Amino acid sequence: MTDFTGVFPILATPFRDDESVDEASLRAMLGFVAGLGVEGVTVLGVLGEANRMSDRERENVVRVAVESARGRMAVIVGVSHPGTHATIELGAMAASLGADALMVAPSAEPVPSEPRVADYYARVCAGVTLPVVLQDHPASTGVHMSVAAIARIVGENPGIACIKAEAVPSAAKIEALSAALPRRVPMLTGLGALYGQFDLEKGSSGYNTGFAFPEVLQAHLAAWRRGDRALARRIWAHFLPLIVFEQQPGVAVRKEILRRRGLIAGGIVRHPGAALAAGSAAQLTGLLEFVMPGVDVRQPIDVAAIVGA
Predict the structure, then answer these.
(1) The domain containing residue 95 runs over which residues?
(2) How confident is the model at residue 1, as a pLDDT?
(3) Is the pTM for the entire model greater than 0.85?
(4) Is the pLDDT at 55 greater than 80, yes or no?
(5) 285 occurs within a structural domain
(6) Secondary structure class of 121 (helix, strand, coil)
(7) Residue 72 forms part of a structural domain
(8) What residues does 289 pair with on adjacent strands?
(9) How many domains does the chain have?
(10) How much is the average pLDDT of 163-192?
(11) Which of 168, 195, 289, 295 has the fewest Cβ atoms surrounding its Cβ within 10 A?
């Protein structure tokens, strides 16, 4: 049973030039992060371009993820859908293939209604068999859930096992939720680790995000847990320029970094998603050399050596 503490990378879905799913690259990426010793991965999130994939493709991605994990790490599957029934069906599919948990975000309605959001989660939790990660990410969903609403949803649905805290200011919301929740629920940092240090200070249990260097997040979290606050802050601050650069709209920057790391064969973004502009690619080259001079990013990076720990 996953306790939802630690580092859970969100994985991109690699595509070939013809935009078909690149299964070989997906397996390579899964093998790499498993080798790092992460606690789990999430597939079919926003980074995974799930909204641009067919149900059959989603099923194949889940199957590959579960097969590649082989018990070495948990597999969380994004099953969010505007339709409640469809969300439950996607959850059943993930469960049948051996996934460990589901990530579920609400969908925007013409008339915002927190009771309707609560009803959505109640129906989903009653209809699925796996633990649910409640994703609070207004930037992608258009849904703003108050602290009181989330506390109610958690209290009424024992199946919710984790909160992915991505509503800014995330640190303040984590702190408020810690006081308001009727039971302890781990809260994981997303948003590309942009507010990672601040979130840890307020009670984050770790990371569930797509930053292309999960070993940095592992080192940051490990330093914080063992009480080396100065080192934790130094790690985060050192890599912050890269974290910020990755946070540009879309998934092209992150997929290009994954390509340069040798984890996926190409940085293709499914249409109508935008490819990385040549100028941005040149900036990325300079930034990687600035943050990690002379480092071979195709190998797991030695964070301690880079920051001088």
Answers:
(1) 6-239
(2) 72
(3) yes
(4) yes
(5) no
(6) helix
(7) yes
(8) none
(9) 1
(10) 98
(11) 289
